[in-house]
Amino acid sequence: MLLLLEEPLKAAGFKTLRLDGTQNARQRAQVIEQFQLSKVDEPMILLASLKSSSTGINLTAASRVYLMEPWWNPAVEEQAMDRVHRIGQKEEVKIVRLIAKNSIEEKILQLQERKKEITSRGSGRRSNDIAGMGINDLRFVLGE
């Protein structure tokens, strides 16, 4: 998905950086540093996968987050959003989900809501403690 977004953004004249699982730790650190040092008058778009941007980094240079691919576990998305909501954030943060109707992504969003409901019922488990996507979850997403 990131590569599909990167080319048209660059063609439209935007400066972009990419943060994903293909990069080693040193490369990711360089991308994050470059993004954090970007100037307000020279906006930069950071295209980041959820898993590579969900823990251990600060992205306070960002003020807008667009979630394009929901993750079945809502805690992963929440952690990624928290990278922008950090001490040092000077701008108002806006988070937008782009979900097509009747898509697998819409089903995953519904699955997230089910998981949040389960955890809020006092099961004693936090959403990131839920083991993984089970067969029933997969069937739900695929519409079976």
From TrEMBL:
Gene Ontology molecular functions = ATP binding; ATP-dependent activity, acting on DNA; helicase activity; hydrolase activity
Example GO BP: DNA repair
The record's keywords, sorted A to Z, are: ATP-binding, Helicase, Hydrolase, Nucleotide-binding
Q: Which residues form the signal peptide?
A: none
Q: Which GO terms describe its cellular component?
A: nucleus
Note the superkingdom of the native organism: Eukaryota
Q: Where is the Helicase C-terminal domain?
A: 1-139
Q: What protein name does the entry list? A: SWI/SNF-related matrix-associated actin-dependent regulator of chromatin subfamily A member 3-like 1-like
The source organism is Trifolium medium
